[in-house]
Amino acid sequence: MLVADDHPLFRSALQQVIAQIYPAASLYEAASVAELQLEVDRHPDIGLLLLDLHMPGALGFSALSWFIGHRSNTPVIMVSANAHPETVRRAIDHGAAGFLSKSSGVSAMEDCINRVMAGERGLHPGLDANAAGASLQSLDVADALASLTPQQFRVASMLVEGLLNKQIAYELDVKEATIKAHMTEIFRKLGVHSRTQAVLAMGTLSVETPQDLAEPPA
């Protein structure tokens, strides 16, 4: 089972919860989308992914979409401090088997994991999912991202961050011509013709932080 979260303490807490339920399970961890992709490649037998919504290298539900495209039979439980009804609803619409708030108790986490592993889907214990779901455009973009290779996904993510081709080439240690070839394929899969259109398309997967999480308490 794989726990993907960029916060070491919470990642460790999730691993402890899983270890209590499945003491014989092999546990893997990732602190970024790049590490997630490496773990997916190394361990094709992963049986469950617990995925943080705000992972370095991801935009909203992009990492969820990519993972489901490459491991369609592996359930994903999305975990986030952002448990806004719209966020929960969109996560389920984009294929998450369940959604857990980071404030959930251990018993709620254990119950959700057990039920997902038993085949149940659409779980969101103690949370409200009665909100507008994912748009048709975002679902189409998710399907496109699901077909990207790991390297194409990294290029697309850096594109959204505003990096130029030569900057992406430097970060990935490849030739600029290689990045241009990836861009051509990314545009084709997204059904767009420019960098701006690609950024706007991927932006449909973004998640805004609710006001009560964005501002520190008075």
Topology:
Layout: E1 2-4, H1 8-21, E2 28-30, H2 33-42, E3 49-52, H3 62-70, E4 76-80, H4 85-93, E5 98-101, H5 106-117, H6 136-146, H7 150-160, H8 165-172, H9 176-190, H10 195-203, H11 211-214
Parallel strand pairs: 1-2, 1-3, 3-4, 4-5
Q: What this model shows, in words?
A:
The chain is of the alpha/beta class and 218 residues long. The protein folds into 2 domains: 2-117, 3-Layer(aba) Sandwich (Rossmann fold); 136-203, Winged helix-like DNA-binding domain superfamily/Winged helix DNA-binding domain (Arc Repressor Mutant, subunit A, Orthogonal Bundle), CATH 1.10.10.10. Helix content is 51%, strand content 9%. The chain has a 5-stranded parallel beta sheet with strand order 2-1-3-4-5, sandwiched between helices. Mean pLDDT is 92; it is low at 214-218. Pfam families: GerE, Response_reg. Residues 1-117 form the Response regulatory domain. GO terms for molecular function: DNA binding. Residues 141-206 form the HTH luxR-type domain.
Keywords:
218 residues; 51% helix; disordered C terminus; globular; 11 helices; 2 domains; alpha/beta; five-stranded parallel sheet; Arc Repressor Mutant, subunit A; Rossmann fold
- Overall residue-averaged pLDDT value: 92
Radius of gyration, whole Å: 17 Å
- Major sheet: size, sense and barrel closure? 5 strands, parallel
* CATH homologous superfamily descriptor of the largest domain: Response regulator
Summarize the structure.
The protein contains eleven helices and five strands; from the N terminus they run E-H-E-H-E-H-E-H-E-H-H-H-H-H-H-H. It is α/β, with parallel strands linked by helices and 218 residues long. This is DNA-binding response regulator.
